[in-house]
């Protein structure tokens, strides 16, 4: 059996079905005109997305247990996975990134313009503490020029679901923040899925009001197996923004 980090791409695209056999953790938290910023260039000359990084890691014989590999892999995994939730992201991770691993835009059907997003990716398997919400606030305050302002959302991707303390900290946060549980799937780790998505009232006020989350099928761990992941819902249908800006909608489980 070949090592999981060797590329086996492209990833299968999730299909939409109807079922109610499984429910991931889905929460939306709430209390009682933006110009598109210029996307930065990729952070490395050797890779720019998940397939190119996996190919580079194989060619360079990178050790998959090293923290640099784990962090870079998870950042690219999150960027690729969040594309199914209408995010367009670029990896910026580096020593002077102010905690920003990814940045880009979130395209919503409720707005004629995209919202700016700054993303932190926590590749550790340990549960996060409420301190991560304060880190998001600091990241937003210290954002680079062109990425600050009221229409910028702080996003945190983690491998574990948010604890009660984290959820409460998100609810009370005075800045727009969003939490995503993103985990790898497939024998080769070339795909990811979102198992939890939650945001606070500040995100609603920026344009997420009326959006919800539902379920859809995604490829499972074994051949011919399927599993469920979180999907963004708009007017009762799954909403995605395609590469050409068009939307793809279909039914999903409630």
Which descriptors would you attach to this protein?
10 strands, 21% helix, 254 residues, 4-stranded antiparallel sheet, alpha+beta
Question: Would you give an account of this structure?
Answer:
The protein is α+β, with helices and mostly antiparallel strands and 254 residues long. 21% of the residues lie in helices and 28% in strands. It is built from five helices and ten strands; from the N terminus they run ααβββαβαββαββββ. Strand 8 and strand 9 (237-241) form a beta hairpin. It is globular. The N and C termini lie far apart (38 Å).
Total number of beta strands: 10
Shape estimate:
globular
**Cα-based radius of gyration, to the nearest Å:** 17 Å
Question: What is the CA–CA distance across the termini?
Answer: 38 Å
pLDDT averaged residue by residue: 81
Number of helical segments with 4 or more residues: 5
Structural class: alpha+beta
Unreliable runs:
1-10, 12-26, 30-35, 243-251
Order of helices and strands: HHEEEHEHEEHEEEE
User: Which strand-content bin applies to the residues?
Assistant: 25-35%
Helix content: 10-25%
For the sheet with most strands, the description reads: 6 strands, mixed
Walk across the major sheet and give the strand order.
Answer: 1-2-3-4-5-6
